Amino acid sequence: MTNFKTSYIFLFLLLAYYWLGLFFYDFLDRNFGLGYIDEGFSLLIAVFYLICKRKVGCIGKKTIYFALFIIFYASYSIYIQSNAMKAIFMDIAIVSKSFIVFFCIYDLRIKFARQEKQIIAYNMFVGIILLCLIAMDGFNIIPTVRYGTTFSYTALALLFCYKINLFSVFLISALFLMACIGLKSKTYAFSAIAVGSIFILYNQLKRGRVCLKFKHIVILVFIVSLSLFTIKEKIFRYVTEGSDEENPWARVALHMNSFPVAIDYFPFGAGLASYASWASGVYYSKIYFEYGLSKVHGITEDKHNFIADTFYPQVIGQFGFVGLIIFFLWLLWILKKSYNFQYAYNSQMNSKMFLVLALLVIHILIESFADATMVQNRGVFVCFLMALCLTNQVTNSKRIHKTLKIKGGH
After folding, report:
1. What is the pLDDT of residue 2?
2. 292 lies in a domain?
3. Number of domains observed in the structure of the chain
4. How many Å apart are CA 390 and CA 404, to the nearest integer?
5. Whole domain around residue 216: which residue ranges?
6. What is the model's pLDDT at position 409?
7. Residue 107: inside a domain, yes or no?
8. Would 207 be classed as within a structural domain?
9. Where does residue 97 rank: exposed (0-12), middle (13-18), buried (19+ CB within 10 A)?
10. Is 318 in contact with 347 (CB distance < 8 Å)?
């Protein structure tokens, strides 16, 4: 549990990252070369974590498991010589930053009070106004490709702060629809799922317990299917096109060759800085020569700007089937833990946090197919928000349990 001062420190860190690491990240990177804000932020969070843990107790099990995972893959990569030593350590910093933020925030049980959530909400409203102005100005500060995700994260942060009522539901839904201004098919799909989920589960969210019935599942499956239908052409191109072309798309080539790499390096993958990661381009990996990818546009040794443009191939290629399973188990653990909290302890806060977490997980699953959000600056904010939702549920459930125990005693 954290004290008043600690919560305000992390509130400042969250808002500072929203503005510098998410909202103005591309602008700062393009004009001032500040492209390492996300790695620096995760290091800062880790330092604060160690300082806090020195005062409040031992390091949590989940954090230790994550550290052991990184140590194992670092050792494995060095052993099989997946790339140069500096490339491996560069990849560790890039790959682990979002997860470091998640496990540190979760382990510290950071929880914001009502007035702190109001401060977050005010910042999000300022963000919304600026996003509208940026769209009218022609996306000079935030590129179109990042506009939808920035709007979606702002909407989810507001949902994290607000109580569930008709006003908040319509407001958040409107924001998700406005995210579609970015004209990205994956944003259309996610916005449809988000808005549909909010309206379908509204009554249950108000009552404080989400319990999916058959009719809810049918409607949600229909919405997901409809959403996938809107991006079916892009999925089809990723999976089927490019194999016979002289210059196939970088994403297509990376997707198609990730499983052959994972099979050849079964079960732990080709190691860090070896495949579909930025470090594997800076320190050009031998894998690209071995699998005939060194001449693919965007993955060449001299021009590798699309080499880290998607996440699933990176997980499959570098971490193998073991890494892919662990990644999905991590997401499943988050969902299961969150669902159990809101089901066992009837509370609007618990049910709302479950919805935000579920939407963030869906967002990760969609984005990971056509983007590398989890290892980019946006992944840090996503993981910070996920950890906050989970810790809010933990502390709120403990409070409810304590109240019920006192009542039971009387």
Report:
1. 52
2. no
3. 1
4. 21
5. 4-236+311-409
6. 56
7. yes
8. yes
9. buried
10. no
Confidence bin at 345 (pLDDT 50/70/90): confident
Interatomic CA distance for residues 199 and 106, integer angstroms: 29
Q: Which whole-number Å values give the CA distances from 84 to 79, 281, 320, in the listed order?
A: 11, 12, 19
Find out whether 66 and 38 touch, Cβ atoms under 8 Å. no
Joined tokens for residue 42 = 């995760």
DSSP string, 28-87: HHHHH--TTHHHHHHHHHHHHHHHHHHHH-PPPHHHHHHHHHHHHHHHHHHHHT-S-HHH
pLDDT tens for 11-27 read 999 999 999 999 999 88
* Measured CA distances, 348 to 118, 157, 342 (Å): 17, 16, 8
Radius of gyration of the chain (CA): 21
Give the ranges where 306-347 is alpha helix by DSSP (H): 312-344
Q: Domain for residue 280, yes or no?
A: no
Separation between Cα atoms, residue 65 and residue 69, nearest integer Å? 6
Residue 242 pLDDT: 43
Q: What is the pLDDT of residues 269-303, one digit of tens each?
A: 999 999 999 999 999 999 999 999 998 888 999 98
Q: Averaged over 28-38, what is the pLDDT?
A: 90
Tokens 């998607």: give the residue. Answer: 310
pLDDT reading at 329 higher than 90: yes
- Ramachandran category for residue 267: left, alpha or beta (phi over 0 → left; psi -120 to 50 → alpha): alpha
Mean pLDDT of the chain: 86
What is the rounded distance in angstroms from the CA atom of residue 47 to the CA atom of residue 27?
A: 27
Residue 404: how many CB atoms within 10 A of its CB? 11
Q: CA 71 to CA 185: how far, in whole Å?
A: 37
Name which of 331, 324, 329, 402 is nearest 364 in CA terms.
331
Give the span between the Cα atoms of 93 and 237, in whole angstroms.
32
In the chain the first and final C-alpha atoms are separated, in Å, by 27
Q: What is the per-residue pLDDT for 227? A: 65
pTM higher than 0.85, yes or no? Answer: yes
Please, is 217 exposed, middle or buried when counting C-beta atoms within 10 Å of its C-beta (0-12, 13-18, 19+)?
Answer: exposed
